[in-house]
Amino acid sequence: MAKNTRTTAAYTTEFHHEFRVETGRLLRRRFLWFTAVVWSLGLLSLLGGAVIAFGGLEGQTVEAIKSPLMWVFSVVWLGMYVWAFLFAWKQRPQDEVLLRLSFWVVTIDGLLALSMKAVGVPGTLGIGGFFITHLFACLFLPWTPWQALRPMLVVLSVNVPVTLVLAKLGQEPSAAGGPPAEWLPNTLIMLALMPFLALPGMLWCWVRHSKRTQDFKYRFMSSRYTEMRRELVDARKIHESLFPRPITEGELRFSFEYEPMRQIGGDFLYASRKKEAGGVTSFSPPLSIVLLDVTGHGIPAALTVNRLHGELERVFAENPDIGPGEVLRLLNRYVHLTLSTHSIYLTAFCFRVDTEASTLEYASGGHPPAFLRAVDGTIEELPSTAFVLGACPDEAFDAAPRTLAFGPGDTAFAYTDGAIEARDETGTMIRIDGLRRMVASVDGMLPTTWPAAFRDEVVGFRGGPPEDDTLMLVVHRMVGDPLNAKASSRQTAADAR
């Protein structure tokens, strides 16, 4: 649970970080557009006012434009927007600074509008001008609803006392000598309705922010999925590079087929042949093979396989002549000490073919039975000889290896449980008997082609994607002149690990 929580937290942190980065870029671009458009319109308004004021025209509007206070406030207002534009353009402030700047620009715009109304600047719109600016800001800036509400709260809070004072001072006395009784209710009703004028801008911010969040989430998931697929392809190349190469010439032939449930999986195959000094494979060397099936699927199982591959490399490097029983014991010790604490276990089938002695020695830890098909067509099962690896400590583990005859024409076939647990549409599994029938019906078929042929039969049987990793391998001893076979083997022995 803790691991899942950390993974989710990392994902959430990454999402929010990238969303903030994108929002910051968008905020700067939109803020520059907002301030540029506003001060451009303001400048045009001032120029138009100057033409009207000094063009010899007469009237109440002209007198309002000629008011010195109007020009003072207009220049201050215009200067604020020009400064904000230049600051955002030249300084490139951080996102939080720019967000605060957008708040204060819109808020000061509203406070200037209230100040113009309070000091009696003729022709001013007062709070109405602020509502227009606020809506304009909501249309431009990538605000959240809360960010859009903040300047509105400040300006409306200041507007309440200003409006009440101006309303009281502006009333004519009643017949009784006092102010008219209806001024307060009318003013309060007007103040109560004012916040509703902020709803269009806030609603727009809510709709746009929700849509932008959903669009970004879709792009984020798509990019992460594409990135994950690309990484899985690379991981599969690395994972499969750990597998041995098939042996297609010489006295001993070896081939396999691997189909992971996902891009990579927990089935693995390791092969080793003794090397002479200088790294050359020795003449007619025994072939050791280890077939592993790790619990789980996908990336976690593949990571476990990488660890086991390193352990097998160490084991065979220290003792190239090591037998299957000792390999199984060392693997069990390693898994019990390092992996079982994470509830990771594995089955393993280890065998060693020695053509000089014409023997096959094997040990199996909880693995499905392999098959040994003799040259005369008889089939012998090679059952498990020990527990699943990691289930018991080293001192309680007994690999109990067995040795069988392995002469010319004999073939050993091993597999993982994905092959026997494949199900058809009715839920029926192939089972061990199904694979045994396949092994019994291969007369005339080259043994090294069995894995590919059996894989095709399994795929056709299940009629859908695999539900487990599947690995099948075959080791065949050719019938013929051993000397010629060994001479050919000398040229191709480097293909096996």
TrEMBL record:
The keyword Magnesium does not apply. Residues 265-477 form the PPM-type phosphatase domain. Keywords: Hydrolase, Membrane, Transmembrane, Transmembrane helix. InterPro entries: Bact_Sigma-Reg, PPM-type-like_dom_sf, PPM-type_phosphatase-like_dom. The chain crosses the membrane at residues 31-57, 69-89, 101-119, 125-141, 148-167, 187-207. Coiled coil: none annotated. One of its GO terms (molecular function) is phosphatase activity. This is PPM-type phosphatase domain-containing protein. It comes from hydrothermal vent metagenome.
